[in-house]
Amino acid sequence: MEARARRLFLLGGAATVGAVLLLLTTFAGAAAGRAQHVSWDIIHFTPGTGTVTFSPGGVASAQTQAPASTFGPVQTITLTGHGTFVAPSSGRGSGAATGGGTWTITEGGTTVASGTYEVRDLVSWEFANKQAGIPGTTIIDQTGDVDARANGTAVLRIEFSDGEWGILTVGCHGPGAPNHIFEGIATTKGYKTYYAVQNPAGGVDANRTIFHLQK
Q1: pLDDT for 131-190, tens place per residue?
Q2: Number of H helices, E strands in the chain
Q3: DSSP structural state of residue 94
Q4: Which residues contact 76 (CB under 8 A, 6 or more apart)?
Q5: How far apart are CA 23 and CA 203, in angstroms?
Q6: Which residues share a beta bridge with 172?
Q7: Which residues face 100 on adjacent strands?
């Protein structure tokens, strides 16, 4: 009787452990399924007759605070860039981030520093919505799946080639975006704050970004 009871206890314990493992696997799979794999690009924006083309290799800028009399001479930082990241379902940051680009700082029209930067971490990603079409216009997207375009805001921790670190914010306010997302970039570099976002303007191929949901 005691041997039979022990066997039943062991079988029951094994079943309990198996059930727990199954639940953990199920929850982990669900969480992984909710993670978003995202790419971002600073893009060229080329309008044409009845078309617009998004292509890689564009530039975006931000400036230090004006007026110069209070905060020193205004500096402009200009970036190129592309990368990817995985945004966990928890909403927290992630080390699963890649990419980078180039940076140039100008002051009074003169280049004072330049180099490259690399993305080290995702700090946060806030998905807003899928981008809409543009009535009467064909979108040619050379940076990703045209049907996977997304609006939102990504915050990335980056390392500059001169050894300084920064926090890069990439905002995309594309077709159909809700209010209060800027289009372009803002960044820190060391203690400097390049927070004056340079808005895109008609006829100027600069200060435009795009996200794509990979899955």
Answers
A1: 999 999 999 999 999 999 999 999 999 999 999 999 999 999 999 999 999 999 999 999
A2: 2, 14
A3: B
A4: 61, 62, 63, 64, 105, 106, 107, 194, 198
A5: 55
A6: 152
A7: 82, 118
Q: CB count, 10 Å around CB of 184?
A: 22
Nearest-CA neighbor of 143 among 23, 54, 78, 44?
Answer: 54
Residue 33: the pLDDT is 53
Q: Give Cα separations from 30 to 25, 80, 85, 88, 89 (angstroms).
A: 9, 35, 19, 11, 9
- Strand 192-194 with 184-189, pairing: antiparallel
DSSP letter string, 126-144: EEEEEPP-BTTBEEEESSS
Q: Which two tokens stand for residue 159?
A: 């390392």
**What separation in angstroms does the CA of 201 have from each of 28, 198, 208?**
45, 9, 9
pLDDT tens-digit profile of 88-97?
Answer: 988 889 999 9
Q: Which residues contact 152 (CB under 8 A, 6 or more apart)?
A: 125, 126, 127, 128, 129, 171, 172, 181, 211
Q: Is 5 left (phi over 0), alpha (psi -120 to 50) or beta?
A: alpha
| Residue found by looking up tokens 């990703």 in the block | 144
3-class DSSP state for residue 32?
helix
SS3 content of the chain, % helix, strand, coil (to 5): 20, 50, 30
Report whether 66 contacts 185 (CB < 8 A). Answer: no
In terms of pLDDT, which residue wins out, 17 or 131?
131
